[in-house]
Amino acid sequence: MEIKEKILKSSIKLFMENGFFEVSIRDIFKQININKSAFYKYFKSKDELIYKVIEEFCSPYFDEIIGATNLCNESTKKKLKTIFIKYCGIIPYLKKILNINKFNYIAVTFITIEGLKSYENKNLVNDFNHRLLEGIDNVVEEGKELGEILPAIDSLSTSKSIVSMLQSSMVLWAMNQNIDINLLFKTNFKYLWKSIGVSPI
């Protein structure tokens, strides 16, 4: 395994177990037994490392969330529900690729919602949020055309509300892991569809 890849894999594991802000560069040096010069050969700063970690390990899942509706050829209700299911699946995804079970849930929330807003390169998260909003808006518009969503619904406002619902649910769950995240998202979707759907839930 190359040094850069080793740094990335070890860092994401440390971040997920302990949190982004609790892990220092010195902790990373110690974890993989490298010196300062070896680290700075590949990364200018911890901020850049965090960006690369999210880009490497989380961007593929972001793409899966956005692409979920394209793989679903069923009703509008099913397409929207698929997004909810995918969005709350970040933990199983990270467990699978990292092979860890201990998570700092604030770190997971940081990835899925805040991302890199406080870091130099904001394109990754901004692009994800824009594409997610656009994708949901397309589904809502299509649903109205098919007569599956109430015609009086404002598509863009509804889509923004859905994105906000997804994000706030993640925050609520991160604050209290006693909450069943799957049940939380299922319940939220139920109330969403009750307010916008033509057919019963």
Explain how this protein is built.
With 201 residues, the protein is mainly α. The protein has one domain: Orthogonal Bundle (Tetracycline Repressor, domain 2), CATH 1.10.357. It has 11 helices and no strands. It has helices spanning 3-18, 25-32, 36-40, 46-57, 59-67, 76-87, 90-98, 105-114, 123-145, 155-175, 181-196. Helix 6 (76-87) packs antiparallel against helix 11 and helix 10 runs antiparallel to helix 11. The longest helix is centred in the middle third of the chain and has 23 residues, at 123-145. The radius of gyration is 19 Å and the shape is elongated. The protein starts with a helix and ends in a 5-residue tail after the last helix. The mean pLDDT is 85. Residues 1-61 form the HTH tetR-type domain. This is Transcriptional regulator, TetR family. Pfam families: TetR_N.
- Rg, Å, rounded: 19 Å
Q: Helix- and strand-based class? A: mainly alpha
Principal-axis shape equals elongated
CATH class identity: Mainly Alpha
SSE topology string: HHHHHHHHHHH
Quick overview of this protein structure:
By secondary structure, the protein is mostly helical. Helix content is 70%, strand content 0%. Helix 5 runs parallel beside helix 9, helix 6 (76-87) packs antiparallel against helix 9 (123-145) and helix 6 (76-87) runs antiparallel to helix 11.
